[in-house]
Design brief:
heterodimer; A: mainly alpha; Arc Repressor Mutant, subunit A; 5 domains; 20 helices; 70% helix; elongated; B: alpha+beta; Alpha-Beta Plaits; four-stranded antiparallel beta sheet; two-stranded antiparallel sheet; 24% strand; YCII (chain B); YciI family protein (chain B)
Chain lengths: 424, 144
């Protein structure tokens, strides 16, 4: 094996194994920063040795044993108080070869879950959640995280260092929350994953709409989470939502990078495999027989679109009802705006417009380009072109996305052409 | 990026012989690992070629020729596939290497193939940068 090939293989192994390594080591040394350092030390040793010898049969177990030895050495040398050493001694049989063999049953699954709860802990800021999660649970490098968020590498590096320091300073334990706390913390984790997914799915600014690595990592993490949590229907709801939304990734952007709206997308290009997986996840979620949570409802809406052969054949009545249910359990003006669109499709634009107009004084929608954009669309359908034109102009002035602005300006022109003949 | 791990057919799989319990267990465990790593997209096993048909077009623009199975050259047939979504070619290779020997008896063979995905090429910043450099080079050559 040539050196380059060996390095690339080691890199791949590292990305596969590092979350499990860091999770197990954190349980051992109770310090996520130190755990990451120890895991990195093991990686350095692997980089020195593996190209010379060969890659061991069970590289995950090798890395874990090596890191564990380093941990014991370090703790002995620093004479870190008896407590940590005792704790360590109790876990000397930490992960047998069979355990680490890629599977994440039982203990390893629990440690991974504890690690996710740690990186999504409420003492950290939302930016820190995402950066730390991508780093420790997805094995992304600081540079990759920086590129996907279009910020400087130093910014991300600093964010991660600070986050680890905060966790230490606040004495955040490496534990599994229980009862009500578990629900709350889990919903925080789901929020982080969905935030990550959305950041990739629709970048808020710049010329590129899709930053696929974030979508992929969020989806992968969601799939892992669905396997290591039990009795949590919303995890499956979120996975269903992300699978179905991912099925449209390829059709959301045209050849010149312009956005393509759902109604104009070529449905034959939607990824049927991901849709099927999404529907299966939704079914898993439904089998719990509990009232659907916000992710399950959004997934059910996405499923309606996925199952429809065209806009006209879409079950808009069901979508409007699902939005109403969503609005009831987690009201937000954005959900209302979406409900307005669904209602207009199901019962006519005039009914949709009523809902939109009720949002007119909503402070949180101030400056949000989709409000005038949707209003303009409904007015256009009602043939009130002059009013629609004004709305599209407002929307174009608000959006930060260049491609979207171009699309809105096209609609202004469309309205102008409709208005002109009636004036002549 | 997506990869397909194709398990080739053997005299056993073509004869419809069930694999040993040991192999079934190992395969199941392996599939669980794929699921729990969040990389498994789909996996299926195929029935022997004895109930397959083969359609060929011996003449360009001519009518299809249909031949009933079984087909003889087992090594060129497939017995199953596993579709995974991974970060790199190396990761796909790692997973393929971790798959248990699918048949034993010295006939086991797994073929790893990458699935075409234009988006991967289009959106990868490195590829984009390379492409931009290449375009520039082509333009300069034209001007020269």
């Amino acid at each position: 094996m040539s050196r380059t090939v060996a390095y690339r293989t080691i890199d791949a192994i590292w990305r596969m194994e590092s979350p499990k390594l860091i999770a197990g080591l954190t349980r051992m040394v109770r310090d996520v920063g130190l755990a990451e350092d120890l895991a990195q030390d093991a990686l350095v040793i692997a980089l020195e040795r593996w190209p010379e010898s060969s890659i061991p049969n069970n590289p995950g177990a090798w890395l874990m044993t090596t890191a564990k030895r380093r941990a014991i050495d370090l703790l002995r040398r620093n004479k870190v108080g008896g407590r940590k050493y005792e704790e360590l001694a109790r876990h000397t049989s930490l992960y047998t070869e069979a355990d680490i063999d890629g599977a994440i049953d039982g203990e390893i699954g629990d440690d991974l879950l504890r690690l996710i709860f740690l990186t999504c802990h409420p003492v950290l800021s939302p930016e820190a959640h995402v950066a730390l999660t991508l780093r420790l649970l997805c094995g992304l490098t600081t540079d990759e995280i920086a590129r996907s968020y279009l910020v400087a590498e130093a910014t991300i590096a600093q964010r991660i260092v600070r986050a680890k320091r905060t966790l230490n300073a606040k004495g955040v334990p490496f534990e599994m929350p229980e009862g009500e706390a578990l629900k709350e913390r889990l919903s925080a984790v789901l929020e982080v994953i969905y935030l990550m997914f959305n950041e990739g799915y629709s970048a808020t600014s710049g010329a590129h709409w899709i930053r696929p690595i974030l979508c992929q990592e969020a989806l992968r993490l969601g799939r892992v989470l669905a396997e290591i949590t039990q009795d949590e229907p919303e995890v499956h709801g979120l996975v269903a939502l992300m699978e179905i939304q991912s099925s449209r990734l390829k059709t959301r952007v045209g050849a010149d990078g312009e956005p393509i709206l759902l109604k104009d997308q070529n449905r034959s290009l939607w990824d049927r495999l991901l849709i099927r997986r999404g529907l299966a996840a939704l079914e898993r979620c439904r089998r719990f027989g509990r009232p659907p949570g916000p992710y399950a409802l959004q997934a059910a809406i996405a499923a309606c679109h996925a199952e429809a052969a065209s806009v006209a054949e879409t079950n808009w009545v069901r979508i409007a009802a699902l939005y109403e249910a969503l609005s009831r359990i987690s009201y937000s003006p954005i959900v209302e705006l979406n409900r307005a669109v669904a209602v207009s499709m199901a019962f006519g634009p005039a009914f949709g417009l009523q809902i939109v107009d009720a949002l007119h004084n909503e402070p949180s929608l101030y400056g949000y380009h989709l409000l005038p954009s949707v209003r303009g669309d409904l007015l256009m359908k009602l043939e009130r072109y002059e009013e629609a034109l004004v709305e599209f102009e407002r929307a174009a002035g608000m959006t930060r996305n260049e491609r979207e602005r171009a699309l809105l300006i096209d609609r202004v022109t469309e309205c102008e052409q409709k208005v002109k003949p009636s004036r002549e | 990026m997506r990869f397909m791990m194709i398990v080739k057919a053997t005299t056993d799989s073509e004869a419809g012989a069930m694999p040993s319990q040991e192999l079934i267990d190992a395969m199941q465990k392996y599939n669980e690992e794929l699921v729990k790593a969040g990389v498994l997209l789909a996996a299926d096993g195929l029935q022997p070629s004895s109930n397959a048909i083969r359609i060929s077009y011996p003449e360009a623009g001519g009518k299809p020729k249909v031949v009933d199975g079984p087909f003889t050259e087992a090594k060129e047939l497939i017995a199953g596939y596993t579709l995974i979504e991974v970060k790199s070619r190396e990761e796909a290779m790692e997973w393929a290497l971790r798959m248990p020997d699918p048949h034993g008896f010295g006939q086991g063979e797994i073929e790893l193939r990458q699935v075409f995905d234009v988006e991967d090429l289009m959106e990868d910043p490195e590829t984009l940068a390379k492409e931009a450099a290449l375009r520039k080079q082509v333009e300069q050559q034209r001007k020269a």
